[in-house]
Each structure stands twice: as C-alpha cells, then as structure tokens.
Automatic annotation (TrEMBL):
Main location: cytoplasm
Lineage: Bacteria, Bacillati, Mycoplasmatota, Mollicutes, Entomoplasmatales
Gene that this sequence comes from: tsf
NCBIfam families, alphabetized: tsf (TIGR00116)
Pfam families: EF_TS (PF00889)
Protein name according to UniProt: Elongation factor Ts
Length: 289
C-alpha cells in the first residue's frame, strides 16, 4: 500500500530509523505504526547481530549512589559522536536509575535488569539497531553497604565508585574520588598488588640500577626502596593526596576516622584494543567488490 510522508515522519520520530527503512516497514505492515515498529526491531536486530564483531571502544562511564548502595558501569559505542547523542545519554540515565534500585551485583545480572523497553541487554540491541553502531554494557560493579561516594568526570569518560567504613563526610569522600579520577591508581593497597607485577617491576629496576661495588645488603635495600617507591605510585593509599601532598591518601582517610574498603575506577575503552581504520583502503576494497 502507499504510505504518506506524515506516517514516515511519525515512525522515524518513534524509532530513529532511516527514512527508507520506515517506508519499507509501513509498506510491509499496511501502514500500522505499532506493527511497523515491531518490523523495524525484527529487522534491526538482524543488523545488530551483524555488528556484534565490531570494536566498541568509545562510550560513557557512569557512577551513581544513594548513600548506601553505589554502582558504576561502562556502556560502549563505536564512535564518540554517538556518546554525545541525546537518546544515548537518556539511555545511560535510565540504566543508572534502574541499576541503583536493582539487586544486580554482576554484569550478567545487570544485563537482565528491566527498563522501559525490556531488559538492559535488549535495550542495547535496540540501540544498536536504531543508532547504527554497536552498543553494549561492557562492565558493571556495585557495593551495597558502608558509605559510598561517586565522581563522574565532565567528559563522561571517567567514573569512580568508593566504599568507606566510618564517619567520613560526603565532601571528604568526594575529594578522594576526585583524586582517584585524576591520579588513576591501579590498586587500592599494597596487599592487592599481584606478585607478577612486583616481579616485572623488580626486573626493570635491576636492569636500570648500577649496583657495582655495593654490599649485598645495601644493594638489596636500594632495590627494595625503588620497588616500594614504584608501588607507592600505583597504590591509592600510598599516593600523595592531591589536595595535601604532605600526607598520603591513606593517612588522610585515617585522619577522618574512616577506612576505604573498595575502589572502582572505570575509564572508557581501557583495555580494549582499538582498530585504526584506513578509510581510503576500505573504500577501495568496496569499489573492487
């Protein structure tokens, strides 16, 4: 059947699908809007599946707390352009509202949390279909007791979630969050540093330290001192506090009669191998095909 421009416009506003796709959907469903939306989703999910092997290394990190429970998660897209899209950001906010009130404590559980248009997993698939890029909830973490504090950087690429025990004020807790965002510690305390990391660092230190003529005990002390200095650089509680470099973060927290139990710092795309695309070569390959 013939469809009119007003129907196409309405369907586009509801789904953000392309104009020609909306036209095809309406023709296939005799102009019934609700059925056309289903048709687009069905066909959109097929397209989304084809995008599943793409690398999504851009996106948004987001943290939220209600005082006791705190959550932090990362949703990835293929380009940073999408992460500035209003509908994408509305999806992030809706996920945050749903996850903070849920009982999800793992990524698998988070994907099954319900929002307005199905589960979070389904919403990501629908977003992939309508936006045209792979959208996925990559990671999620939650803490459920103590005092929680969060920080979201203005660029939406770095988020921090901390869990304290004690009476630390919200202002002081927020300052520690900002420190974590800025200084990017790899570990909370020295106890968390893997032995493999220590072994690699010690090997590098030995290769770059001249111990000629040093007594064995003195040489050992020099090496251990350099290793401890390196560990202090990557360990939150050992780092100099950015707001007061005369004391460590650990001593600052202790002075507030509190203990930091858990630290999460999510930065968009960290650990993902990004693919550099040669667009000229890609176009040439398509022309040959």
């Amino acid at each position: 059947m013939a469809v009119n421009p007003q129907q196409i416009k309405e369907l586009r506003e509801l789904t953000s699908a392309g104009m020609m796709d909306c036209k095809k959907a309406l023709e296939a469903t005799n102009g019934v809007i609700d059925e056309a939306i289903v048709w687009l989703r069905e066909n959109g999910l097929v397209k989304a599946a084809k995008k599943s092997d793409r690398v999504a290394a851009e996106g948004v990190a987001f943290a939220k707390t209600n005082g006791k429970r705190g959550i932090v998660f990362e949703v990835n897209s293929e380009t940073d352009f999408v992460s500035k899209n209003e509908k994408f950001m509305n999806l992030i906010k809706e996920m945050g509202e749903a996850l903070i009130t849920s009982e999800a404590n793992s990524l698998e559980e988070a994907l099954e949390v319900k929002i307005s248009n199905g589960t979070i997993k389904e919403a990501c698939l629908n977003a992939t279909a309508t936006i045209g890029e792979k959208i996925e909830l990559r990671r999620f973490a939650a803490v459920n007791d103590g005092t929680t504090a969060v920080y979201n950087h203005a660029n939406s690429r770095i988020s921090v979630l901390l869990q304290f025990e004690g009476d630390i004020s919200s202002e002081d807790a927020y300052d520690v969050c900002m420190h974590v965002a800025a200084m990017a510690p790899k570990y909370l305390s020295k106890d968390e540093v893997p032995q493999d990391f220590k072994d690699v660092e010690m090997h590098i230190i030995k290769e770059n330290t001249d111990l000629t003529g040093k007594d064995e005990k003195i040489a050992k002390g020099i090496l251990e001192g350099k290793l401890n200095k390196k560990l202090a650089e990557v360990t939150l509680l050992e780092q100099s506090f950015v707001k007061d470099e005369k004391q460590s973060v650990g001593n600052f927290i202790k002075s507030k009669k509190a203990t930091l139990k858990t630290m999460y710092r999510f930065e968009v795309g960290e650990g993902i191998e990004k693919v550099v695309t040669d667009f000229a070569a890609e176009v040439a390959a398509q022309l040959k095909g």
